[in-house]
Specification:
about 65% helix
């Protein structure tokens, strides 16, 4: 009898309590590539559009420069969020992830995303002056990080992860019903 990847990871033996490493799991690849990345992209795109008026680009830029900024930042958000998740899985994911270790992985990925955001916003608004906040942006000490990008990394990737995981559970439930 071969167990499906949704029940135990590939290579798992029933009753052994042991499952394959996450990087060999079809369920892990599906979670990250087929569900998390598209959900993170959609959430990041929406967030970038909504927060754009909190940057001076909104009033000083051209429609083309705004469109470029939204696309550029969304792609960057997806790359950063995916890298943060994968690094967190490598550091804190146990055998059997994505079924196990959600709290540690998600917590570490969120901290990594927030840390990168604090650094990037400081670098780009204070050092290189690549972009500036409008007067409407609330800034958080000690580095003057904008509240909108901070909230983005506290909310969007965890919500994308939770929804991706829930969709995987729903899919497995549907597969079991059809079996």
């Amino acid at each position: 009898m071969r167990l499906d990847a949704g029940t135990l990871s590939e290579g798992a033996h029933p009753g052994s309590g042991n499952s394959a490493p996450w990087y060999r799991s079809r369920a892990a690849r599906r979670l990250v590539l087929a569900r998390f990345v598209p959900l993170l992209a959609a959430g990041s795109l929406a967030w970038e559009i909504v927060q754009l008026p909190l940057y001076t680009l909104w009033s000083e830029g051209t429609p083309r420069s705004r469109l470029f900024a939204v696309a550029h930042c969304t792609i960057g958000d997806v790359m950063i969020g995916t890298a943060a998740l994968l690094i967190s899985v490598m550091l804190f994911g146990r055998r059997g992830w994505p079924r196990l270790s959600h709290g540690r992985v998600l917590g570490a990925a969120t901290i990594a995303g927030v840390a990168y955001t604090v650094f990037s916003e400081w670098l780009n608004t204070q050092v290189t002056m690549s972009w500036q906040y409008s007067e409407s942006m609330i800034q958080v000490p000690p580095f003057g990080t904008g509240i909108a990008p901070l909230l983005q990394w506290i909310l969007v990737p965890p919500m994308a992860y939770a929804l991706a995981h829930a969709l995987g559970r729903a899919r497995r439930g549907t597969q079991k019903l059809n079996s």
